[in-house]
Amino acid sequence: MPNQLVFKSHTLEAIDHEGKLWFTAATLASALEYSRGDKITQIYNRNADEFTPCMTTVFENLNLRFSGKSSGYSNLKTKMRVFSLRGAHLIAMFASTPVAKEFRRWLLDLIEKESSVPQSSTVIAPHRECLPKMVYNHRSKYNPYRAYVTDNGKSVYVGCYPSVEEAVAAQQRYFNTGEVKRIQEISDSEKEMFIGNLQAILHNFRRIDEIWRAQLRPALEAMDSKLVYLLFDRFNDSMAVLPTIESRVGRYVPPKLPR
Predict the structure, then answer these.
(1) Which domain holds residue 93?
(2) Would you tell me how many other CB atoms lie within 10 Å of the CB of residue 245?
(3) Crossing angle, helix 227-248 and helix 188-211, to 10 degrees?
(4) For residue 100, is it within any domain?
(5) pLDDT tens column, 25-65
(6) Distance between CA atoms of 47 and 50, rounded to whole angstroms?
(7) Do both 203 and 170 map to the same domain?
(8) Using CA atoms, how far apart are residues 117 and 168, in angstroms rounded to an integer?
(9) pTM attached to this predicted model
(10) Do both 111 and 57 map to the same domain?
(11) CA-to-CA distance for 27 and 40, rounded, in angstroms?
């Protein structure tokens, strides 16, 4: 679904896909005041290794029709590369037109607005893994496979493992020996120390974020530094998860630390 946005005197069409805005190369060329649309493609091709999948992708257009041709030419599949707001910002970092700097600032405002919109917590994997019964993938970096068994009608957790094979072996081991992989108990003093350290980290990161917004970001923007884009993502993503961490460790009470 197209959305129309206005940058200076340019009306830009953005594609709304899964709650995110995407621009075609032709749209970015217009915004950056290039005379030819292939300039954006050239910029991307020279720097493709710096783009992540969330910055650019290829959409298939199934509705293209050619006039004056036979019906065999209708509804042909065409592919076009599109860029997210962050991808468009990176394109603008490499652009050499006079308007590029102003376009980057405009994009940063859009990125902040887009990031502030709550996203659904439901994630549908494009290629869902087929797993054995009672083995689940829980997105852990080191031990992603969580194993359970059913014992007398009750679900019993038997541990997390780095591979499917080890998770299945743990299920079998439970039925053979009754053994489960238990998490070691932590003493109250260790819990208090951990929570105190975590609160100190949260407190310090909030102060660093204040300095970033008030001093570092404006200074880097004035120098037209590429670090603005890289650090913006890091700070924005980190601050987005801070409230969740705070809620997990109890009510957040900042420790008395020097500012």
Answers:
(1) 2-116
(2) 15
(3) 150
(4) yes
(5) 999 999 999 988 789 999 999 988 888 888 888 887 645 44
(6) 6
(7) no
(8) 40
(9) 0.44
(10) yes
(11) 9
